[in-house]
Amino acid sequence: MSRRDIGVPRSLAAFLLASALLAPGCASLPDAFSRTPGIEDLGREIRPEAPPEYDVLVARQHQTEGRPVAAVAAYRRALAKDAVSGYLHLALAEALARTQRLDEALAHAQLALEMEPERREARALVAQLHRIRGEPEAAASVLLDAEGAPQDVEAAFQLYHLYLETARAESAVEVARWMLRQEPEDTRVHVTLASALERAGRPLEAEAVIEAALLVEPDSLRLRTLLARSKRHRGDREGEILVYEETLSQFPDSYETLESLADAQIAEEDYEGAIWTLTRIEERFPLDLSSTLRLAFLFFDAKRYDEAVDRFSQALAEKPDEYEIVSYYANALARSERNDEALAVFQQIPASYEHYADVRIQMAALYENAGDYAQALREIDEVLVFRPDRRLQLYAATLRVKLGDFDGAVDFLQGLLADRPEDDEILYGLGVIHSENGQP
Questions:
Q1: Can you tell me the distance from the alpha carbon of 293 to that of 318, in angstroms, rounded to the nearest whole number?
Q2: Same CATH topology for 144-218 and 371-440?
Q3: CA distances from 276 to 261, 262, 295, 435 (A)
Q4: Are 198 and 229 in contact (CB under 8 A)?
Q5: Which of 11, 203, 308, 376 stands 20 to 30 A from 356 (CA)?
């Protein structure tokens, strides 16, 4: 069987014989393989008088239906009828490899390659089997010609990955350069070379290769993204941002580029620039909640609280149970002097929230600012039950003073002092309370 086109009979007679064997009323393939084959099924499919093409069809059916061992047996029967077929040795090798019988698979793959030295699939399989067996030098020898160059571009790609797997980055660079000489207009090969150069620790050369690829394909967003990423990895944020800006001049609506530009601007602490970029994303992609939320935090940090309130509100419309966002929203309201609204939002946060104590403290501060010292004290006292904290204890004493309960404040602090008689902060607090009450 020397035909490369699998399944094409070698003659009309062979085709007619195979067709007759599969005709209605005979043991057709669907009948024979309608279930997992038992002994009786194997007997029905074995046809010594049939040409090897028939056994190939049987093997393929087994492979399609997930019976790799039966497929191996069928290929063996085909090979017994045509032992000089490179294709059949290759097909059997592939089937054996699927059953993890690597030694036997390699033997048949090598026979296939010896019979048909130009068959690329055989060469690739021999190299792959050597690689799996941990024999990188043997794999490389199959892929190289007598002068030490790759047999062809496909072999070069295998060599490239083999060298990278075995930490031979410089060898991978040389193979990639060979590929580029063969296909100078293929930007995928440029990227392959750039990747090898990066692995070899030569990022500037890698960037030069990508820039050369952009001369071949100037409208490639993928290449521009790779160039920007390389600059980011080596810490050249300014260069990265410049690439994004140039990219946006060609692709103004590239979400990935806009998002990456915002990341780079934030890393450079260019918050106004990041706000501009994220606002642009918001305008072009109004359903992108992540950019809206990032804007909210940036506005909050920039003390642009009204704008932060607006973005937090939009985010919470989609994620009402994100209590960290709820907390920031309430804080933004408070800093916009919308205290009643802030309190109402804080009250929506359940006690199960991990930072619930901080929420109650913030509520206490709002009540204090509103002159409701009693409610502020209740908030702090509740927090002190599960989070004893000296600063909160001193705050509670201050609130008692504001309520006019000087004796209560003194008693409270003296109770604390009994446990820590040398605590300067408590002593200082007592002194302040006494002085405010007109006592020495």
A1: 11
A2: yes
A3: 10, 9, 9, 53
A4: no
A5: 308
Question: Which CATH class name applies to 144-218?
Answer: mainly alpha
CA 118 to chain centroid: 39
Domain boundaries 371-440, corresponding CATH code: 1.25.40.10
Give, in order, the Cα–Cα distances in Å from 89 to each of 35, 147, 358: 28, 28, 73
Q: Residues 132, 112: contact at Cβ < 8 Å?
A: no
Cα–Cα distance between 276 and 271 in angstroms, integer?
9
227-265 burial code (b ≥16 CB/10 A, e <16): bbebbbeeebbebbbebbeebbeeeeebeebbbbbbbbb
Structural domain boundaries in the chain: 144-218, 371-440
| Distance separating alpha carbons of residues 290 and 421, to the nearest angstrom | 52
For residues 192 and 170, the answer to whether their CB atoms sit within 8 Å is no
Is 88 in contact with 62 (CB distance < 8 Å)? no
DSSP 276: H
Phi and psi torsions of 309, nearest 5°? -55, -45
Residue 427 is encoded by which pair of tokens?
A: 């002593």
* Whether the Cβ atoms of residue 96 and residue 106 lie closer than 8 Å to each other: no
Give the tokens for residue 6: 């699998």
Q: CA 383 to CA 206: how far, in whole Å?
A: 58
b/e code 70-80 from CB counts within 10 Å (16+ = b): bbbbbbbbbbe
Q: Are 162 and 136 in contact (CB under 8 A)?
A: yes
**CA–CA separation, 6 and 131 (whole Å):** 27
Q: How far apart are CA 391 and CA 198, in angstroms?
A: 53
